[in-house]
Amino acid sequence: MAYGDRRLLRACCTVLVGGLIATGCAGAGDDQRKPEGKGSTSTTPVPTGASTTAPAPTPTALDFTPDPKRAPKTEAEARRLALAVVAGPDAWAPGYVKRTPYLSDPDYWPVLGANCSWETGTRPASVLASVTAYSEVPATGGKGVLRVAATVTVHRTESDADWEMASTLEEALNCPDQKLRDGERVTGLMSLGNPFGVGGNATAHDALREGGSYLNDAVKGKQFYSWYQSRLGQITVATVVKGAPGYQEMSDATSIGTSQAQVQALVTMLQRAEDQLEVQS
Amino acid sequence: MSTATPQPDPRRPEPGALQPLLPSDPSAIAGYRLLGRLGAGGMGVVYLGRTAAGELAAVKVTHADQADQPDFRARFRREVEAARRVSSPWAVPVTGADPDAPEPWMATAFVAGPSLGEAVAAHGPLPERSVRLLGWSVARALAAVHAAGLVHRDVKPGNVLLAVDGPRLIDFGIARATGETALTATDMVVGTPGFLAPEQAEARTDAIGPPADVFALGCLLAYAATGRPPFGTGAVDALMYRTVHDEPDLTGVPEGLLDLVRECLAKDPAARPTAAEIGVRLVEDRPGDGAEWLPAPVVRTIAERSARMLALPEIDATEAGTGTAPAAPPKSRRNFLLLASGAAVLAVGGGAAAVWAGLGDDDGTDGKGDGKKPVPPRTQWTIGVLADLSGPAKEIGLAQERGARLAVEQFNARKDKPFTLGLKVVDDRGDAPRALESAKTLTTDPGVLAVLGPTTDAVGQAVLPAFEEAGIPLITVSAGYNLLTLRAGSTPNETFLRAIPNHISAGTHLSFAATLLPEIRRPGVLEDRTEDHYSWQVTGGVRFGFGQAGIAPHFRVVPAHADARAYRRVLGEMIDSGIDAYVHCGVTETAVHAARALTELGFAGPRFTGQAVFGQDFVKQAGAAAEGWFVCAPVADPATQKTAAAFTAAHRKRFGTAPAYYAGESYDVVTMTIEQLKAQAKAGGKPARKGLWAALRKQKYTGAMGGYHFNEFGDLGMGGTFVFAVQNGAYKPIGSAPLLPNKPEKNDKKA
């Protein structure tokens, strides 16, 4: 598992960097974006095949056999599932603690408005439940507060979840600069999808990464911003890190980047979701 | 077993000792005609077999009673799968297997050369340079084995075969039980105890990993350099004890190798270097330039062995490769063997020529009467084609094959040609998961100098590591995925050459072409995730290009294989949001949905799309809805190129039809490659892979379809996108896409 995670991560970064170089976009190297935990701009149920096209060779299918009987069908079932899956501080890494409030309101569903500002929205009927868990690494030794969050969204159908992935990709294309809330912005967003088997995605039916820069009026300078989102069947899971002074996203020879915990939290949620949905032997 | 000296593996006696088949033996297994027995043991039999294409193989068949042991088949299957992932020119490839047969079997390519054990026993220790090259190659093979998640566990002189162009590691990780060591498997795996790592000697199963192979490699190198295993010989238990507790005897190991060998032999597995590191440390030399990597007597042995194989029964004129008939000289068994031993024959001169001459009478099998004379020693140099000839992109692949064939035939027809070229065509069927297997026909053939291909991005991603490892330039005229040339780490691309724009550049060109229509202010750009890697790159390029023009598009992203209803909905929303042009970053299937939806919705603006849609399927399937679409392709129409007249005429003459799209560019890049090989020959060298990519990348070539030059990454230097308009169900060439955007004079403030 750990090996697969590293590959996923490396591949995501590789591909994103590739795009940046080749399009000549400025600002490569720093990153990331949206209020932690989010909904989407559109979700109309449209039947579609699962994204099975896999340009990369390696594995041919995700090793996951869902049990239709275990699939959540009501809002209550979905909320129970989301709470069981969502990553708390333990799933990130040592040193992460709960923020207050820790969990989002059951009706929390931000949407990206036409002016590229995140606003309060209404959870669409195609979404059964969505939970965001907020964690942080408190300020220590000259480092700022590192704020992170994990979101689980349970859709009615796999197709609905597929459209959520697509609309997340749309956000960075249409709004490379977004206002999260007063005093918080993300800029220079780039996003990239990796269906299973592509770009090192060996853990989910679909995955995407969005990266850019994070600006907080209360903090000096530009920080990185990183959003990972994966889909397993009708469920999407996401982790977000808003950089802070003293942190770096990627690991190097001297220090461990935040991406390691971020991928850890993401993959933990995928694993929990599999456990919740899979055929029990 | 208590051998005094390392013995040749009993499973592989020398080919001269090939035993006849027994009455109880089958005459064929799967596609392999069996020629004789190479060896037998309690677990099964190893046969020498031959494929329909004439290639020799070692076919190992496991006895049914062994196969019925618990877990055997599952393990066998797993290990065959893993072994198929091993891709190294220095590891003998698995060419076929059936774990589910009543008697499970597995075939590997057959190498006629003697084992390292036999060579050292017959001719004594190898000189330092040979040992270094041996170490480099075997380390590379082990690195590939380890990368595939395997541990060889039986690296020893009997499992390294010496061929003219370098050594080959055999028997990697096949059907060996978890925890089984060379000691416990007394039938099939008779290891030589002097080559086991301490953790293996102590059967500490949990501790046996890639470092055990590195330890064995250290023993192997010491043995090759001195003729003695570093922990001596004698009784097994004493040998084991010394392996675990004593320091190795490295007397006689050359100074330059001493540190490395000593590190490999560290008792602590964690203290040993990795196979990949060893490869790097020995990198200054590498085999590949003929036979000089080995001393002359060993080369003579190889030549004799190869020659003796000619006497094998039932050798017909056959074709190589899995694709279509090769051009020019039909590839006979003779060519196959020449290919393996030609350089050796050149190297040893008279002696080997006599061997060949002496074989003449036995070799009437290809019926040309050339058995009368000594065969002129000559290497068959070959241009490969890796193309989708029967899958989804066969329209493009077949055109490419024709272009390449024409180029090779025209060269061979020249009186002044300095050498003759073969053409080896492999059909990858567009099947990425199996492409690596298909490509091995090319990557394991030392005569292949360069390959045109692949047709598709997915196959490119699958096969690239094998071509990188083999050092064979892979030249494409249709695979635009950016990471085929761009490398993540510090290793730059030195394998892939792209004679078309990559998808990102193509997307940029597409948007520049769109800006020629001055009324466009708010294009709608749709990213279809059906082939996600293609679409995001084109979308990224389009986004960048419109940005250069100061135009802000409206983007939508649609999941893979969305249906017509989804497209009607999304396009309706895009039109409602005020788009004045439509750009489809996606595949034909969804472009057809989009074309129909736009027609139904009465959209009046221009429509654009790219390479993935350029083909007959789009106009056929979308019908009237395709009319007026602009399609940007990475290739030109030969009819519009004055310089292509001779090529077009030759194509008509050869194939009875005008060249299809992609044929002209294929003809050009193959001709360009041949020109470079000619230049090498003129400069006194032999045609070789080495340096070919770099030479091709640097030059500027003008062919029938125009000019080609490349940037430092191996991508086409500039331009290369051509705009076509669908008119009356056909593609009408409009012209080259511009290299700069046309900025609207009065930009709307809207963004």
TrEMBL record, chain B:
<keyword id="KW-0067">ATP-binding</keyword>
<dbReference type="Pfam" id="PF00069">
    <property type="entry name" value="Pkinase"/>
</dbReference>
<keyword id="KW-0808">Transferase</keyword>
<feature type="domain" description="Protein kinase">
    <location>
        <begin position="32"/>
        <end position="294"/>
    </location>
</feature>
<dbReference type="InterPro" id="IPR028081">
    <property type="entry name" value="Leu-bd"/>
</dbReference>
<keyword id="KW-0723">Serine/threonine-protein kinase</keyword>
<keyword id="KW-0418">Kinase</keyword>
<comment type="similarity">
    <text>Belongs to the leucine-binding protein family.</text>
</comment>
<dbReference type="InterPro" id="IPR000719">
    <property type="entry name" value="Prot_kinase_dom"/>
</dbReference>
<feature type="binding site">
    <location>
        <position position="60"/>
    </location>
    <ligand>
        <name>ATP</name>
    </ligand>
</feature>
<keyword id="KW-0732">Signal</keyword>
<dbReference type="GO" id="GO:0004674">
    <property type="term" value="F:protein serine/threonine kinase activity"/>
</dbReference>
<dbReference type="InterPro" id="IPR028082">
    <property type="entry name" value="Peripla_BP_I"/>
</dbReference>
<dbReference type="InterPro" id="IPR008271">
    <property type="entry name" value="Ser/Thr_kinase_AS"/>
</dbReference>
<protein>
    <submittedName>
        <fullName>Serine/threonine protein kinase</fullName>
    </submittedName>
</protein>
<dbReference type="InterPro" id="IPR017441">
    <property type="entry name" value="Protein_kinase_ATP_BS"/>
</dbReference>
<dbReference type="GO" id="GO:0005524">
    <property type="term" value="F:ATP binding"/>
</dbReference>
<keyword id="KW-0547">Nucleotide-binding</keyword>
<feature type="region of interest" description="Disordered">
    <location>
        <begin position="1"/>
        <end position="23"/>
    </location>
</feature>
<dbReference type="Pfam" id="PF13458">
    <property type="entry name" value="Peripla_BP_6"/>
</dbReference>
<dbReference type="InterPro" id="IPR011009">
    <property type="entry name" value="Kinase-like_dom_sf"/>
</dbReference>
